[in-house]
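Deliverable D4.2, example record:
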Amino acid sequence: MKQSKVSLREYLWKAQKEVSLEARHRSDQALLSKLLQFIPLLKAKTIFLFVGVSPEPETLPWIESFLHLGKTVAVPFCFELEYGIMEARHITATDQLVPGKFGILEPRQTCPVIEK
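Output generated by the structure prediction step:
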């Protein structure tokens, strides 16, 4: 099972990289449009979002949209990279995101932790 999951993940990652930037941009915008129509999400007070890196969805516009709607937005902060341990940190603006160890944007260390 684990090997099939790894193989599937590799296949999907490779397939995503073959999609044009224009098509990815359209897809990201369509996803945001659908998210902004999803009632349970709109009723949520706190939203936890990752910061996408290519070929993942570009999520910064999503984060900005939810901040604009007055949501509490949490973004993962990796504090033990060897073990992949993360915590949710509260941001109030995208300028509070800085490159982490692998260049992926994450909250500044001064951003408060949001408990489960």
